[in-house]
Amino acid sequence: MMGDVADYGEWKTGRRASGTVTAAVVFALWAGLALGGAVAGWILDLYGFVSKADVQSAHAQSGILLTASIYAGLAFVAAAVCMFFTPFRES
């Protein structure tokens, strides 16, 4: 997909910027991964998760299950709703 973005940019501007496009996409990917990991950690902290504990509390266990299922699903649905309202046009 990064190549398609570079091709589109070249078609619109007449300049090829494959390196810039690749760098921007990879940066956005890593930033999103870092933010997603941080949010998951913050949520688990709210549930009282203790790293390297032999046994987690019942509240922490429910937080683990909710974070890995319901909250992740809600984030996916929110992203899908945003994509639904994004105007895609052919040029």
Can you walk me through this structure?
- With 91 residues, this protein is mostly helical.
- It is built from four helices and no strands.
- Helix 1 crosses helix 2 (18-46) and helix 3 (58-68) packs parallel to helix 4.
- The longest helix has 29 residues, at 18-46.
- The radius of gyration is 20 Å and the shape is elongated.
- The two termini are 17 Å apart.
- The model has no long low-confidence stretch (mean pLDDT 91).
Q: What string, H for helix and E for strand, traces the elements in order?
A: HHHH
Total number of helices = 4
Low-confidence stretches are none
Protein structure class: mainly alpha
How many β-strand runs? 0
Q: What does the overall shape look like?
A: elongated
The major sheet is characterized as:
none
Q: What is the radius of gyration computed over CA atoms, rounded to a whole number of angstroms?
A: 20 Å
Beta-strand percent range = under 5%
Helicity, as a percent range: over 70%
